[in-house]
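Pasting as-is:
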Amino acid sequence: MKLVWVSLIVFLWTVLSQSQVENATEDRSILSLPLFYYDILNYASDDSGKTRVDVYIQVPYNQIQFVKSKDKFVSEYVITVSIYDEHKIRMLTEKSWTEKLETSNFDLTISRNSSHLSLRSFNLEPSKYSVKVEVEDKDSRKFYTYNTLFVVDSISTNFGISSILLIASQNISSTSNKIIPNISGNIVQQKGMLAYYFEIYSAVDTSIVLNYSVINKQKETLYSNTIDYNLVSGRNQILYQIDELDVGLGEYQLNVFVKDQKFNLLAGKTKQFNSRNYGIPASIKDLDKAIEQMIYIANNTDIKFIQDTNDYDIKLDRFLAFWKQRDPNPVTLENEIFNEYYRRIEYANKTFSNYLEGWKSDMGMVYIILGAPNNVDRHPFDYDSKPYEIWEYYNINRQFVFVDRTGFGDYRLATPFYGDNYRFR
């Protein structure tokens, strides 16, 4: 297989110091499976001049520690939501609470498909805020934190629209209408149901036109539907479902546009979501890119066979068949090699990317093939040499030297990487 040399460009030493591989104990928290999910949404508030901001937090069971207590498994974790000004100089408000989970089923305690959902609401003035969401496992004392900038919209009760909440499932009966939010934003089926909820506020009874559409990253419209709707004065709760949304792996955008009877635009909201398939790593959002990234484990014949069709379903089946053949334990739902390979791809992209994708860089190539080195010896400022790094792999008795000959973070292998080592391990 031909070795393609590409570079990693980093302009500042401060950036460079944050873009280095760690040793075999590297932190995997930056990778594809989130430690928890969260979503932040705007709704009209009863508090004049403010907006109700709902913060949802969904914690998978397998991310928290369960402890055996008599005939049950018990877990406790603390959630803290902190609201700062846009520049995170001053904290404006904070809510913290403890969640306690109990189950008698051990399998649930290690399942990522089971999770606990929490919700807290804030009344905030319209502005841009910095929001920190933190989960602390009380048994392991581990902290998981996400930070994001969030715009609180001004929503008028005379006429306005809320954020869009994706729905995982719903149970509608004559006595209740229970919905389970989809906080992850993932649709885990190729031809799946996409359900969502939003609110429209109106001071008067009036007729409107609702236009729903789904577009891909290329701005192509994959679904569109227009319906008439009669608003009543006050809060209108709208639940809509697309029964079969035929999309492939990737990122998509849901659009909701509100128009008058003459089709003049009155308001609109968008929502991002991902389409996934069961058993495929969450980091894979583009099938063609994922096939291209197989160069460190598949030969040219394998890759060409998978690519040699314009039928998406056939291409996906061939892709999955390749990885199924390499599943070390076919009786389980998890394919460890499949997951680990694309975990390394994502780590390389997050750690070594700048103008070029990290999986194409020399450091990314070595990391993907061999995993994290046992030891990293860095020499960024030696006066008598160019900056260089030495990665050592004790299990194969090899070391790899990367040299930055330009002085701008362009680290390349000093010697070629040939032979059997040029295969995923």
